[in-house]
Batch of 4 targets.
Target 1
Amino acid sequence: MTDWTAGYMADIEYTFGYYQELNPLRVKLAFLNAGLVCPDVGAACELGFGQGLSTNLHAAATVTHWSGTDFNPSHASFAQELAAVSGAGAKLYDQSFAEFANRPDLPDFDFIGLHGIWSWINDENRSIIVNFIRTKLKVGGVLYISYNTQPGWASFAPVRHLMTEHAAAMGSSGAGILSRVDGALGFTEKLLATNPRFSLANPGVAERLKFVQGQNRQYLAHEYFNRDWLPMHFGTLAQWLEPAKVGFACSANLFDHVDGINLSAEQQTLLQQIPDAMFRETVRDFMVNQLFRRDYWVKGPRKLSALEKGEALRAQRVMLTSYRPDVSLKVNGALGELTLQAAVYNPLLDALADYQPKTLGQLESLLKDQGVSFEQLVQATVLLSGAGHVGAVQEASRIPDAKKHTDPLNAHLIRKARTSSDMGYLASPVTGGGIAVGRFAQLFLLAISQGKSQPAEWALLVWQLLVAQGQRLSKEGRTLESPEENLAELTAQAEAFALKQWPLFKALQMA
């Protein structure tokens, strides 16, 4: 019998994640900041799309035509459901990489994305993917790839091996994978409590295990308990990708674009002394103890001149995607928590506080009298984008066409929020991708769509849905039992939604 899973975890479904690095508009911002030519993405592909939330949000919110595959038929079925609802025309399949790569009806792609796939497949599938990139990625096209990285996994990789061995040897297959995950975590905690010499030599392991124990069990099953699991050095990945004729472009993690929050002055000086760009990335991974890389590669990188880069950046449109008073000036880089320069960031945030798209050129004019240089403006925009507070905006002429697809998709996702909090994103035709929206905020939007205009009415609708399902709210670790307590809390949340999120969501054209 053929094992269609190829060793990948198929006992349970994957989480409903959304990955902004797959948004073509975000790709453009990263490329411009790195001084590189970025293609206009007309055709895109995601390999291993999971539940397909990212693919469908991007297909609906842009004019890009998406294709993709995920070997799990349950995932593909849900993804196809979303595609049918939006009418955006995404072509999504449940084929293996080999089957998908041999489809005669696939176009050549401007963008190919793989999020969290490379580390969890075998070498045979890696070879198939590299050949697919070589044959189907257009010249000038972009590859996004994320993967577990060495040296960050050097100390915890043996612990992962221990947990999978425990699940195989000590777990009961009839109990299901989630029970085996819990059993493996519990055993590993007991082992570390005996102070083995391994944990004494690797003092960060216990803290990492504590972090792992707090994560979603479905996520952990897919992250740690697949048959194939290989953290890879950057240089090794580069060797794998060499036949595909792609070159490293830049990090897809926008925080990585700002050395000041990740590297000491001494480290920056050392990196500047390394002429080889590829080796420089390897050294940088040691400096930050990189666990997970998110990178853009390009088939034929081309540099922009200083003039071209400045013109393209000044034409780039952006908008605020968070409630202005809630935007923190603290960020976490490899150096820890740092406070951003208020004299630069507050004027920029204030200029964007009306939630209207503006070009960086317009912002430059607005901020020049406040002592903010264009270089500071660009860096601040990149960091705020990395933190999820600012989003790149697509061309105004494309937004109405995208909205025809995001409206039905969002309505469908909002209806699902009646019974589940799994899908915490909606599509914005303005930013061309997903925006985080919690379950209750989605249900408040449902109430508004039904003609209810007051927060108290929104809260009542949500409470009625919860009552019908025997659900209650919790606050500060305590379950709210009485209807009065629940309604009071929901009304407070609805009033906060009306103040903070509702105006923003209207500007993002999600409601």
Note: The first strand starts at residue 43 and ends at 47.
Target 2
Amino acid sequence: YDSIVYNAKHMPDGGESWGRLWDDRYKGRLSLRDDALSSIQPVALFLGYNPNQLTTAQLEDCKKFLISKKGHFRTLWSTYAEAVNLMRSEEVWALWGWVPMVSELRKAGMDVRYGLPKEKAIAWFGTLIVSKDTKVLPSVYAFLDWVLDEKFATSLTKDFDYRMTTTAHMKNMTPDEIKEQQLDNIDALMKNLFIQELPENLNDWLRVWSEFKSA
């Protein structure tokens, strides 16, 4: 899931919320991704809206809110490396981000956390699609079996902290790692996730994001 990457040295624990990304106490040390979908979704959740079904009026509310908080954002990041560097240099203390960023920064010795907002984190699923025209179906199935098996799942979990759709790798995880990834209570984890969909009115989202940036 996508959530808040934050530096615990500068930000205390507790009160996990998307509001951390526009908290007045950290004005000028916050960042969003320069992406309409990624950055409007958490605002919608924070305001109590369903991001998958935002009306024109609700989108306008999200825009007005973002504009009111624009001074809180030191910058809008575009690439993975840019986001990691902003956190590593401590120019930014919290941003909308991805879990591999946390893994990389922790390996560098930083006390970086990945919040699970009370308004729900934004979940997505990576998928593999088999073309109906493939001429190598046995090889495709062999690859899919490998992806679902222990070695691949263990690698993605250990290296990037991704949650997997298999449990074959959990025997290679320590109890602390299992708890960290909330795999000790998957039902509870799923209840705290919002499954995102691509909105039908995406053009309106892009317009709103552009108007926020130019405000």
Note: The first strand starts at residue 3 and ends at 7.
Target 3
Amino acid sequence: MDSFNFAGKKAFVRVDFNVPLDENFHITDDTRIRAAVPTLKKILKDGGSVIIGSHLGRPKGATDKFSLSHILPRVAELLGVDVQFADDCIGAETEAKAAALRPGEALLLENLRFYAEEEGKPRGLAEDATEEEIAAAKKAVKESQKEFTKKLASYADVYVNDAFGTAHRAHASTALIADHFDAAHKLFGYLLQNEITAVEKVMKDTERPFTAIMGGSKVSSKIEIIRNLLDKVDNLILAGGMTYTFAKAFDGKIGDSIVENDKLDLARELVEMAKTKGVNLVLATDAKIADSFSNDANTNFASVKEIPDGWEGLDIGPDAEKLFTEVIKNSKTILWNGPVGVFEFDNFDKGSRAVSNAIVEATQKGAFSLVGGGDSVACVNKFGHADQVSYVSTGGGALLEMIEGKVLPGIKAIRGY
């Protein structure tokens, strides 16, 4: 971005403006829009013009609920220029608007996912559709996707991908469009480049000890990440709801706590795998328990293996808190994905707050800390720590797939690998 001169050029910039809206279509969190502003401003400042493409939600066709017109005023306000709007992302009128753009001007396209061709998935298939009908529908949408992608690419001289949140999708505007530009005219925006740099610093340019904290309710949703991390980390803290699957796997009594009964063997396997690889696997020893899933529930503390019937673990206990924070404070590289308790309830956010505090302290002492995944980001925002860690990722699925070791289509489309 810094070395490319956009003067006199039109840039198609794929952003991730998939922001939350309230019932009156007001933006409740504009983080993703603000994150893309530096890239867009650089192009405009150079004397280029921008065609902004994004999705919003998961529409099954054009609908006002998911129209990007709702966010147009905020985009214009943040960019400091009048942003035009195309009420379709393709078509003669949109093509004319893009062609008429002058240096320093911006055009926001309507939701790309109003078209099935963006994702390349057929829509409207009957529930009882035969395999032949499904195959035919898939083939048809893939064929029309090529023309859709070609139209989007035709608006611009340069393609800029700044949408890390969708970089793991091989969609028309996130990956396929790059094929229509030569290597010198397709590049990462500032946000996407920063995301790649942060993840690669954690996973490839690692200063040790390296500690990963993985929270969340299910072992099954994190299994590939855990396996990949066991080849890279020195310490792996597994917490959140998955705690109780591990506790039960080793004959613990977990009361009414969340558990994956079909993953008990897997939990035992992961413990053995950690031992074999010499990884310090850290699990909570105690929990803050509640007699209902509520902020106002009665509470107590118990060993994770001695939770009474009628009670469930909703946060880590004081012993686990000390254990986790000690490991984190002595780390040089830290990855945090997933809270260690039901942090949305103030009564059960103490464990996640302690983890966040420890990460901040380690960062102040020189550690590199990467926080990613929606709930972890919500944690550091709730606790006021977002600007006190090294990097807060905007990606959910994309971040997790990079941690798993996968090559993301949106990155490969530009890098070539």
Note: The CA atoms of residues 158 and 184 lie 9 Å apart.
Target 4
Amino acid sequence: MKFHHIRDVLAVAETGSLRAAGRQLGITQPAITRSIRDIENDLGAPLFERSTNGVTLTPIGEVFVRRAAMIQSEMRRARDEVNQLKGHFVGQVSLAISPGAALSLVPSILANFRKRYPETLLRLTESFFQPIEKSVISGEIDFFVGAYDHELSTTSLSVEKLYDNQRVIIARRGHPLVQARTLADLAKAQWIRPSFANRPDEVDFSVMFERAGLPAPKITVHTCSTLMTLLAIANSDLLTMLPLQWVESDWTRDIVEPIFLEDVTSTCAPLCIVRRSDVPLTPVAEHLSDMSRKAAMNYHLDKRQNDQPSIRMLKAG
């Protein structure tokens, strides 16, 4: 088995077609076909099921692809690490980051990274942890920055807590209910439930209202992306509940604002750096992790020094 066999299997699995895999890799379809046949003969088992619509992985193929993805990632890391240790800061580094963390941290991280490593490819993925956990484990993603709940992961990973997080009710700027002080003041409001949230109970407004002895909230819109949620909030009188970073970012503070209630205090999963504990990061990825840590520390300190007085003023109303 050679490395090009692994490369070809992963390309076919990704594209679902021998022809498409060949185009992606810049080689002919017969060459891809021979490569797949060679590795299947070597393993003594079929990796793909062929049909008129393309190819799909067999159960054995799915197991093989998981291992192959890890091998490919480690080979890429090995090449990058050797080059970086020689002073050639090339290759790539992959960071997955949650939406709230992206709003508050990415501008600083990106500026510092591009200044320090102009020749390195930075791959950014917006995601919560659960959808990309396997990619972190396989090495496809170097590390994750964002809300992390230990209860949602069954894998042993290195987790570094950056700071605790808070959720707030969010409305468009100038919303008629921004002066509300109790949950009862919002009893007639309509709500957005973002289905992309880290865990279902973090957007379960029903629990919040039930605990206050109020009728269930009227949820009229479901969203599945950061952009759709911001568009819906900014262009309606709908409310939602999301981490505080959503109203503190320079990109959003002019279009949305928080509603702080005297009878509602809501925390959410802390912001963390999550990475594999068994494999070291490349030098550049390690430095990107340091940049993320420093950006989070600066954000948290600025929030404590500057934003808390304004929050108390809002609460005093």
Note: Confidence is low (pLDDT under 50) at residues 309-317.
